[in-house]
Amino acid sequence: MQLAFCLYKYFPHGGLQRDFMRIALACQKRGHAIRVYTLEWRGERPAGFEVLVVPVRAITNARRYAKFTAWVQGDMAARPVDRVVGFNKMPGLDVYFAADPCYEDKAQTLRNPFYRLSGRYRHFAAYERAVFAPDSRTDILMISQLQQPLFVKHYGTPADRFHLLPPGIARDRRAPANAAAIRAGFRAEFGLADTQFLLVQIGSGFKTKGLDRSLHAFAALPEELRRRTRLIAIGADEPSAFRRMAVSLGLGDRVDILQGRDDIPRFLLGADLLIHPAYNENTGTVLLEAVVAGLPVLTTAVCGYAHYIDEAGAGIVLPEPFIQSALNEALARMLTDTAARRRWQANGLAFAETADIYDNAEVAADVILAERQ
User: Fold this and answer.
1) H-run or E-run covering 315
2) pLDDT 10s digits, 131-187
3) Closest listed residue to residue 35, CA positions, set 67, 78, 76, 65
4) Roughly what angle, to the nearest 10 degrees, separates helices 15-29 and 360-369?
5) Do 184 and 270 sit in the same domain of this protein?
6) Can you say whether the dihedral through the CA atoms of 24, 27, 31, 32 is positive or negative?
7) I need a surface site. Which of 39, 289, 302, 370 has the fewest CB within 10 A?
């Protein structure tokens, strides 16, 4: 079959983008042709992929996305495809990969009522409705159980159109046999002594992921502990505001903010704690990536995958509503309680052996390639 995959932006280090790539490659491996429509592509193009960077521009994202949709539909009218798979909400999809939370729920609960009079709201609400409305035929690949009730609440989407995927953690995130040697080499490279602690925060969208919360918790550590601790944040985002915040909190020489990179498994093995106090997170793939690497996790219950941390016994999940002082106290405790960190590490490695958290690309490909009724 000729498959079309649609996503607004591709870059190698985004969670949604990595899910797209794994699923598209799984479909290609089964013998199907892959055509990709996108507004931006950064990184290598896999052999055999037809990648079309759609040449449309507009002042606002909403207008640009509308132009993107029209261009794609025009191209597919001239060159038909058998399935259309979207990684952003838009009309005309056969299958939608639900990486983003329910827009309508956020608009009604987190925004001023006047927001719903805006053109931006009308665009994104209409695009979400095109996917989730009862009369739509789009199958929905869910990666978090938290969001399905919200879509049903606002749209009445039939249950049989939802397909829950396993998290799909890449197996290269698991701690290898030589994990101790990798850790030692990493810490030597970054000048980390055995008596020092390294916190890592990994994920694009520093504001949403709560990097400000992490910096405040770091600054609140007792002085002796703070001097022995470093934080490395990694993600495809603009770091300047957070660098200024680190300096204002007296952490300028203790914090590094790096762009997305390909050697994340080394950071997971070399660090002492993953901190991820997100404001909003549909899933939080990095939480499970840390668990299977044996890295203890400190996160918030708002994350869709936070329940895995509790199930694995691999860290601390802070309840909602978020309280900064609770994060501060938990961070200090996790750094000073050596026995607990060893227990969280061992629990995570044991969880990695038996948990059904891998291979979501194959399950997604089954749905995409299934015969339509």
Assistant:
1) strand 315-318
2) 999 999 999 999 888 899 999 999 999 999 999 999 889 888 899 999 999 999 999
3) 76
4) 60
5) yes
6) negative
7) 370
